[in-house]
Amino acid sequence: MAASCVALLALVLLLPVLLLVAWKRGRRAGAVPHVVVVVLGDVGRSPRMQYHALSLAQNGFSVTLLGFYSEWRAGTWEGCSARSLAGPRVLQYGVKVVFQAVYLLWKLMCTDPAAYIFLQNPPGLPAIAVCWLVGCICGSRLVIDWHNYGYSIMGLVHGPQHPIVLLAKWYEKFFGRLSHLNLCVTNAMREDLAENWRIRAVTVYDKPASFFKETPLDLQHELFMKLSRTYSAFQSCSEPSEPGMERSAFTERDCRSGVVRSLHGRPALLVSSTSWTEDEDFSILLRALESRCVAAFAARSLSVTFLLCVGKGPLREHYRHLIGQKHLQHVQFCTPWLEAEDYPLLLGSADLGVCLHMSSSGLDLPMKVVDMFGCCLPVCAVSFKCLHELVRHGENGLVFKDAEELAAQLQMLFSKFPDPAGKLNQFRKELRESEQLRWDESWQRTVLPLVTHSDLQARVGGTGSHPSCSGRDVW
Q: Contact 77/99 with Cβ under 8 angstroms?
C-alpha cells in the first residue's frame, strides 16, 4: 500500500514535468530554428555574444538574448546580498548562486523552446548546469563559448587553492563536458581544454564589428566638442585666432565653411578601456608615465591626454585615488563615462591604445585590442602567454613586460609625433593594409557551418572524438 502511494505521488509530481517536456518539444517541431543566447551578466559588456546573436538572426534563426541590460541590473543582487546577509562570504555566494539558478531556470522555461542554447563562460556558475538541464528537458543543444575560465578569475581574489575556487574548477570541468559544441577564443585555450579537461573545442577568433573603424575628422571634432562640455581635457587652452572658429583641444572647425582641421601642436591622445578588475594593473602605466618618457615629453613640450574609458569595477576608486595623487606635468588623465555609440568614435580618433589586461588563465585575448585594431589604432599591450595570437610585436603593435619597457615604447612612438614618418603612423598604415576579417565574415566561415551541419555537430561535441578537428578544419 505504501509503495503504491509513493508511486502515485511520484507520478503526480512528474506528470507536469513530462507534459511540459512534450509541450516544449512539440512547439519546436516545424518552427523556425530558435536559438537562445545566454549571458549571466551585463550584455553591454559581452560584445562577442551580441555578435553571435546578430549573426544568428541575420542567417535565418529566431534569436532570444537573455542577460542583464545594464551594469546596475547585473550588480543588483550582489549588492543586495552583501548588505542584507550576515555571515561569511561563502554564505553570500551560496545564496547568490541559488537565486541566479532559479531565476535563469524560470526565464529559460518561459522562453520558446530552442534548438541551441549559446552560453558565455565565464560566468558559468550556475549557468552551465541550468542550461544543460533545460536542454535535457527541451531537446536543446548546449553550445559553450569559452572566453576564459571562471575559476581562474575567482582565484585572483581568493587565491588558487581557496575551497571556493577549487569547487568552481570542479564544477566548470564536470558540467563543461556535458555540452554538445564548444567554441573558444584562442588556440592555446583549445589545446588546454583538450589536454586537461577532455573537452573538444573550435577556435573562433574575435574580429572587430563593422562600426569599429577610423573616425573621419569632422566626426572627431563633433565628439571632442561634445566631451569638452563635460571634461576639461577636451577643452581648448586658447581662444580661436579668428572669429567664426570652433575649437577643441585637438581640432578646430570653420563654422562658415564647415572645414575641420587638426590643431598644430595638439596633445597626443592615448586611450585604454577597462572595467577596473584584478586582471588589469594600472600601476604599470602610472610608473611608466613617471619615468624617463615624461621627461622626454617635457623636453619637447608635448602634452598628452590619457583617457581611461571606464566601467564600474571593484578597483575603480583605488586607481582613481592613485591617479589623483600624481602631479604629472604634460599629462592629463580623464575618466569619462561614454555612451555606447561614442566608444568606437573615440577609438577611431585616438593616436595610441594601451592594454593592461593580464589574462587570469593566460589563455584568453583582450577584446579591447581587437576593437582598437578594427579602428587601425596602434597598440601597446602587456605580455602574457598567448598574446602573440593577436599582437605580433613590431608588426601590428608592441608588447611590453613592465613599466620600463612601456616607458621606452612611449618615448619611441612619440619621438616624431605627429610626423607622418613616425613609428605610430607606420603601425597605422600596416593596420590599414592588413586583411583582417570583420566579425560577420569570420562568423560565416566558422560558427555557421557548426550549427547548420549535423555531421560537424557530432564531430565537435563536448566529449566526442575528433582529434583533427580545429578552426582550420571548419574553415
A: yes
**Do the bridges between strand 379-382 and strand 260-262 make them parallel or antiparallel, or are there none, so unpaired?**
unpaired
Asked whether 460 and 179 are in contact (CB, 8 A), the reply is no
Residue 154: closest CA among 146, 145, 164: 164
Q: What is the pTM of this model?
A: 0.81
Q: What is the dihedral of CA 145, 151, 157, 161, to 10 degrees?
A: -160
Q: How far is CA 20 from the centre of its chain?
A: 36
Give the whole-angstrom CA distance, residue 79 versus residue 395: 44
Residue ranges of the chain whose pLDDT lies below 70:
1-32, 70-88, 241, 292-303, 306-313, 329, 435-436, 453-475
* Rounded distance between C-alpha atoms, residue 161 and residue 151, angstroms: 10
CB 43 within 8 A of CB 16: no
The residue ranges of every structural domain in the chain are 32-207+441-474, 268-433
| The CATH number, out of the four listed (3.60.120.10, 1.50.10.20, 3.40.50.2000, 3.30.830.10), of the domain defined by the range 32-207+441-474 | 3.40.50.2000
What's the Rg (C-alpha) of the chain? 25
Distance CA 299, CA 297 (A): 6
Over the stretch 432-467, which tens digit does the pLDDT of each residue have?
A: 887 667 888 888 888 888 887 643 444 444 443 333
Domain 268-433: which topology? Answer: Rossmann fold (3.40.50)
